[in-house]
Amino acid sequence: MKRNLTTAIEKWVAGGLKFVGQLSILSLPEGGYELRHAEDADKPDLDTFHSPSKARSISFFDNAGEYRPLKTAPNLQHGWRLVLKDAAELRAALDHFYPAMTAVWLSHLENALTPVALRDTLNRQTGMYAATKRLQDEEGQELVGRACAASSCTKRILWNFGPNQPLTTLEADKLPPAPHNESKPPSQMPLLCHEACNILVAACREVVKKRERAAGPPPDPSAAHPTPHPTPHAAS
Amino acid sequence: MSSKPDSALIIVGHGSTVNPDSSAPTFDHAEVILQSGAFGEVHCAFWKEEPSLRQVLHMVDRDDVYIVPNFISEGYFTRTVIPRELELEGPVTQKNGKHLKYCEPVGNHERMGELLLKRASEVAPGVDPADCSLLIVGHGTNLNDNSAFAAKREVDRIRELGIYGEVFNTYMEEAPLINEWDSYTTRPNVVVVPFFIADGLHSYQDIPVLLGIEQETGTAASQREIFRQNPYVLRGRTLYYASAIGTEPAFAELILAQTALFDAQTSTHTASV
Fold first, then answer.
1. Residue A125 belongs to what domain range?
2. B116 near B128, Cβ under 8 Å?
3. Where are the domains of chain B?
4. Is A127 in CB contact (< 8 Å) with chain B?
5. Is residue A225 part of a domain?
């Protein structure tokens, strides 16, 4: 075992990490940790839970009870606090709230995270998503600007549109964070996106399909050399 | 069951962007396995949820990693999507210092029939199986050739046991159709077990309408207080409808069994070389 993510998280928190996404992390004086929505910092009447698996059910629904297919969407529900006995439970809870995000951050710090350009992600698709290979640059850039905006997802995007083809439609706070200062851990852990998610790939497919439906069916190759059509009486 | 404290387990599910019911059994089985201590680490990964197949390997601390698809059969996802997204080269892949072991999907395990019988028995307590028609319902259609084949294989196994009066494999979109269940069953009691990995759209919403126990497609499983009110008396029979076989808690045992099978097959292969 070359690395230990649990130990890394423990060190980050001890070194000053206070926020992950919309979560605030508190080291408890009696030991253990507490998670809550950062906007609930001063609220006294929160529902208290003690199991890291409770993070799963909290993370799946927003304030209105609607399903959250994207955990990094800025719609984490309010009104709860989760008390965790140790760093292992903290890691497990964070994996439910923000799946893979602590691990991806550690890989980033270890220079072991390789971003994959959107074009490369789309070009390897098969089946129903093979249509995404036909995404045009302009419509793709427009889609990323809309689907990956901070109002939809809080991750910062590390990937390019294509090899040597940067993204052109996102605000600066959506692009890679400044280089990390090893001596001072950040108080807010960046959520990093090193490759387009399936939600974006599916959205790319919809853009392509919508354009192609609007353009109508592809031209019939046989139309260029039409077969002589018999007259109604030719057969006889 | 042997313990592998120095190994990690990744359970791969399909997931859904529509409701949490698709991934729920995968998370549940992972929790059970983690608590059992059978593996040092247990992670889930999904095609349409997070963590994704492109993220999950970053989550794994240990170098020895078993990957088990929580799918009902071999098919497009187990043969194409999962190996492609995880960059697997075969049953064993060396990648970034990790030893990745790609196991067979859960539904392939020979104990599937045993679980189907368990679920059928539990959903119709006190009913003599001899007076009962057992229906294993799958999706059907060309897109799911392998799941239809797997359902038929399980039905053949169960039929050979001679426990139930009659046993049918039946499908949503190909003959024998599930909505015609009363035309080919002859016993007074009918037990229906969905051959699906989760109580998603098909088993929870579509099939009840096709069976006739509901008039219109209902809400998702996660949005209901209770499952179903068995038995249903309709079309002159007494019908019992089970939740999807993949929600069976013993599925966790099958996930572990697939890792043990991988080890057994690998050692056999090694010994024969």
1. 118-215
2. no
3. 4-107+249-272, 110-246
4. yes
5. no
The two domains B4-107+249-272 and B110-246 share their CATH topology (first three levels equal): yes
Helices A5-14 and A87-97 pack at an angle, to 10 degrees, of: 100
Q: Do B59 and A126 touch (CB under 8 A)?
A: no
Quick check: B55 and A103 CB within 8 A?
Answer: yes
Instruction: Confirm or reject CATH 3.40.50.1400 for domain B110-246, answering yes or no.
Output: yes
Residue A167 sits in the same domain as residue A204: yes
* Mutation to test the A interface, candidates B32, B48, B54, most A Cβ within 10 Å: B54
Q: Which residue of A has its CA nearest to B44?
A: A99
Q: Which of B18, B52, B222 sits opposite A197 (nearest CB)?
A: B52
A122 and A105 both lie in a single domain: no
**Which residues of chain A are within 8 Å of residue B51 when distances are taken between CB atoms?**
95, 99-100
C-alpha distance from A223 to closest chain B C-alpha (Å): 32
Total domain count, chain A = 2
Q: Which two tokens stand for residue B74?
A: 């071999």
Tokens in use for A156?
């910062």
| Consecutive H or E run containing B167 | strand B166-171
Which of A3, A61, A95 shows the shortest C-beta gap to B61?
Answer: A3
For A4, nearest residue in chain B (alpha carbons): B61
Cα separation of B179 and B212, whole Å?
Answer: 7
Architecture of domain B4-107+249-272: 3-Layer(aba) Sandwich (3.40)
CA distance B99 to B125: 46
Give pLDDT tens digits along chain B (273 positions).
Answer: 679 999 999 999 999 999 999 999 999 999 999 999 999 999 999 999 999 999 999 999 999 999 999 999 898 999 999 999 999 999 999 999 999 999 999 999 999 999 999 999 999 999 999 999 999 998 876 555 677 888 889 999 999 999 999 999 999 888 899 999 999 999 999 999 999 999 887 887 889 889 998 877 666 655 554 456 899 999 999 999 999 999 999 999 999 999 999 999 988 666 554
**Angle, CA of A115, A117 and A120, to the nearest 5°:** 120
A91 and A123 fall within a common domain: no
